[in-house]
């Protein structure tokens, strides 16, 4: 399998990191003040719905979330391509990194470093781990973008799309068409599409152009492998869809069983906003956008709030203690093998 070359990060200046921390803190405070706190006032009026929640809904949500996490690790196993490493080791390493990213400052970077160490200690070559993490950093968000784009198409026919989603649909169509044509760059139309993409790249800020070009190169190498393409279309996509199904189940459990398309649109909008690392795991960002988007699709505010908070409890907080147990089990197993 063709390996994806690692991305070489450059160290940010101290003033840049401090400025970014201040901006992130201000955005978090604004979200809590103007989005989260007003919603919590509704929660106090809706606590009686929690007492009437059937425990079977919670059990089903836990099973779906577990299946979502397993799907992500199955995607990792395909990218690693190491049959000698047991899947349980990959799964526990992924769960450990996932939980750590939710509770420590600089969660994504810390979780990546810890996951790298755990996977290499399990017998995977460092170059393979680096290629896997790089490919996941591209492939997983790309799967989310694909789901959002396809949901926008469905919403267009169901007349549930807002102008913002229609704009996403048109931009996606243009980007896909230009990218498809620019791959060969043989005919006049293909050369025009390539020039259009390069012109769009030149209009971006200068500091992000190398990053965009690097991502495009990694994406081309990633999709060149048929096995990786299949894993991307199956496991990476299923990881997001199963997680979104948990949100849909809680909406149904609280008495607002809406269609899957509005749920996917709200889910994708919230998680795409969380790609910008303002808060650990997108906390407060995801909740605020998801609640507002669901309310815009006609879900009562109280139900939207309870459903989103219940989903985030299962998706964000429940894996944290599981991550701790996974880390302890990996250390115990490694110590046991070292003594043999």
Count of separate DSSP helical elements? 14
- Give the averaged pLDDT, no decimals: 76
The biggest beta sheet reads: none
Uncertain segments: 1-10
* Percentage of residues in DSSP E strands: under 5%
Helix content: over 70%
Shape: globular
Query: How many domains would you count in the coordinates?
Result: 1
**What string gives the helices and strands in order?**
HHHHHHHHHHHHHH
Describe the structure.
The protein is mainly alpha-helical. The protein has one domain (14-324). The protein contains 14 helices and no strands. The protein has helices at residues 14-44, 47-51, 55-80, 87-100, 107-121, 126-158, 163-182, 188-202, 209-223, 226-253, 260-273, 285-296, 301-317, 319-339. Helix 3 (55-80) packs across helix 6. The longest helix has 33 residues, at 126-158. Mean pLDDT is 76; it is low at 1-10.
